Amino acid sequence: MAESNETEIEIERYILESMSEEERLAFEERMTSDPALKKAYETTLVARQLIKEAGRLELRTTLETFENEVSDKVVTSRIMPLWVKRILPIAALIVVFIGVYLFGNFNKTYSGDEVFSTYYEVYNPPSTVRNDDGSKLLNWETAVDAYKNGDYKKAFTFFGTSEDVIPDYIKDFYLGVSALSAESPNYEWAILSFDEVIATDNDYKQQALWYKALALLGKGESDTAMILFETIAEHGWYNHEKAAEIRKVKIEN
Amino acid sequence: MLRDKALKIIYQTNREKVCSYILSNSGDEDEAKDVYQESMIAFYENVCNERFKGDSAISTYIYSIARFKWLNQIKKRGIRVSHHMEAQDTEEFHESPLVKLLDKEQQERIHEVLATLGAQCKKILIESIYHNSSIKEIAANEGYSSEQIVRNKKYKCLKKLKELIAAKPSLVAILKGHG
Predict the structure, then answer these.
(1) Could you list the residue range(s) of the whole structural domain that residue B163 is in?
(2) In chain B, which residues have their Cβ closer than 8 Å to the Cβ of A135?
(3) pTM (2 d.p.)
(4) Are residues B43 and B82 in the same domain?
(5) How far does the CA of residue A169 sit from the closest CA of chain B (Å)?
(6) Could you give the CA distance from residue A140 to residue A187 in angstroms, rounded to a whole number?
(7) How far apart are CA A48 and CA B121, in angstroms?
């Protein structure tokens, strides 16, 4: 029996128990007399089971990213010494002062590169993730270690070949940041990677917008960058205060 | 995605309570995390297939699943479960298919099939079959211009998946055993 969409729809309705009693009995009757239909039904059951397992694995990966965020917060709060906590507000004031001094009070024009260098900061490294059996995700772990050690070229290579269980948007985000953090930033690659992140709704979307705007500045596309900074500032997204500061700066094209 | 945001809030809100319970009942941190994540998955699946109807608070429900799973796990290990611990096992969580994840090798075989299937097919089928999303929701979220396109694509993908599975009898055995 050739399997048509109609057959598949019928099988699905039977599996989901959305047939009437009459339809259900007729379908079961047909299965007893049509081995091809019975076989199609059985394979559909297996296919659905495979998809459920795949969905479950995907969900587990998502939960693992939540877990890492929780762990990162715990680690950060644990390792921050008291003197750092005390000095943080003062340090923040100094940064604001430098920002105002550099860009606020002088009617000078700056290059995109200068603004990029002033505002660019490497994003916090991701956490290492393990498989369910505790084994390592080798490429991901190598990428994360290289990133932590400032070897962004190596990080870029290994983020690009990371294991499938890591969601694409996380890989793409760190590919972008690695491309920007390298000794000679590759703005093109960074923008392409951030575009991939921005294309879907995910937890790194706002960060990717900020870094894309910076990458555009570095690349010399300050007009497009300014539109993004404006969007970020207006929506109150990630680094919106800095985006608002940059908007006040005169940048040469 | 809204679903991920909701899950994240639920995950972060309930994590400490569940993990503290496991840690204070012979579990270590890895076990606490694993049981908690499996309980979250069971909770999510029960929401999708309408087994969880909101009769109890989400936190109570997740906690009950985790406690049920943890008690089973330590009983299997031969650790004596105190009467007090069992008596605490609340009524909110009744029989439900418990999540048992596939081992690494089985996972790899599934990933192989999915890689051959392609990202778009994988997305549509997981959304439809695992997350129970309607064709309308998939069309809107994934940017398809019509529901009919998604419907056709879904059945085309399902057909392709069935062909791939038919070529791997050992995979059929794994999945039947795990169903």
Answers:
(1) 95-179
(2) 104
(3) 0.55
(4) yes
(5) 12
(6) 23
(7) 13
